[in-house]
C-alpha cells in the first residue's frame, strides 16, 4: 500500500498546489532557525539548488533576500509558476528531482520538506543527485523522519506518503558521498519536530 501512495506524490502536489502554497504562507515559519543557519554558511552571490522548492515561499525568498541565486526544482508546474511570478530573476525548472542532472554544481543544496516523500530506494539514490551537483564546501541540508519506516498521513482528504531511513544509514550515505556531517537534530521541538541533517562537501 505504501508503495502505491509513494508513486502518487507528484500528482498530489500538483492537485493541491494552491492549498499547499497558501497553508505554507499562513501557518508561520517555524523552521526558520535552520534556514538561517543554512544561509549563514554561504557567501553573498552563492548559487543554491532548491529541490522540491514548492511555491518559493518562504525558503527560496529567504535565500534570495540574503543575496544568493536560486535554481528551484519542483514536479508541480503550478508551484513553479508561482515561483516565476514571485522571483522572476531566478531559475525555475519543472522536473522530478530524482532524475535531475544539471551540468553545473552549487554552493548550497536544499531538499526541505520534500526528500522525506521519497521511498527508501529513491532516498538512497538521491545521494547521487546531491553529489552530482556538489563540490568541495557545498552545504547540503535536508530533513527526514527520526527512524526507519514508512507512514501514510493525509492532506485535505488525500493520502500523503512519508518515509525515512535509519539515522545510521544516512550517516553512511553522507560518508560514502564525501559529505561531512556538520549538525543533526532529531525531532527538533523548535522547528515543528523536524529531524534535520546539515552537511558540507569534502
TrEMBL record:
Gene Ontology molecular function: methyltransferase activity
Signal peptide stretch: none
Keywords: Methyltransferase, Transferase
Keyword Cytoplasm: no
Protein's UniProt name: Methyltransferase
SUPFAM superfamilies xref list: S-adenosyl-L-methionine-dependent methyltransferases (SSF53335)
A family per Pfam: Methyltransf_25
InterPro entries on file: Methyltransf_25 (IPR041698), SAM-dependent_MTases_sf (IPR029063)
Domain Methyltransferase as annotated: residue spans: 48-137
Superkingdom, natural source: Bacteria
Gene3D superfamilies xrefs: Vaccinia Virus protein VP39 (3.40.50.150)
Native species: Bradyrhizobium centrolobii
GO terms (BP aspect): methylation
Sections of the chain in a coiled coil: none
Organism lineage string: Bacteria, Pseudomonadati, Pseudomonadota, Alphaproteobacteria, Hyphomicrobiales
Transferase recorded as keyword: yes
Amino acid at each position: 500500500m505504501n508503495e502505491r501512495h509513494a508513486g502518487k506524490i507528484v500528482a498530489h502536489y500538483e492537485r493541491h498546489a494552491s492549498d499547499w502554497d497558501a497553508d505554507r504562507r499562513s501557518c508561520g515559519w517555524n523552521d526558520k532557525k535552520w534556514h538561517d543557519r543554512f544561509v549563514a554558511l554561504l557567501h553573498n552571490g552563492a548559487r543554491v539548488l532548491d529541490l522540491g522548492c514548492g511555491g518559493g515561499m518562504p525558503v527560496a525568498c529567504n535565500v534570495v533576500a540574503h543575496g544568493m541565486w536560486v535554481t528551484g526544482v519542483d514536479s508541480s508546474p503550478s508551484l513553479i509558476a508561482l515561483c516565476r511570478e514571485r522571483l522572476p530573476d531566478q531559475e525555475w525548472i519543472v522536473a522530478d528531482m530524482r532524475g535531475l542532472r544539471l551540468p553545473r554544481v552549487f554552493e548550497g543544496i536544499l531538499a526541505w520538506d520534500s526528500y522525506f516523500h521519497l521511498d527508501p530506494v529513491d532516498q538512497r539514490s538521491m545521494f547521487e543527485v546531491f553529489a552530482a551537483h556538489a563540490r568541495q564546501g557545498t552545504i547540503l541540508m535536508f530533513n527526514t523522519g527520526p527512524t526507519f519506516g514508512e507512514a501514510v498521513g493525509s492532506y485535505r482528504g488525500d493520502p500523503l506518503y512519508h518515509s525515512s531511513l535509519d539515522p545510521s544509514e544516512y550517516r553512511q550515505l553522507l560518508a560514502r558521498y564525501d559529505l561531512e556531517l556538520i549538525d543533526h537534530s532529531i525531532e527538533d521541538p523548535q522547528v515543528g519536530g523536524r529531524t534535520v541533517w546539515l552537511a558540507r562537501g569534502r
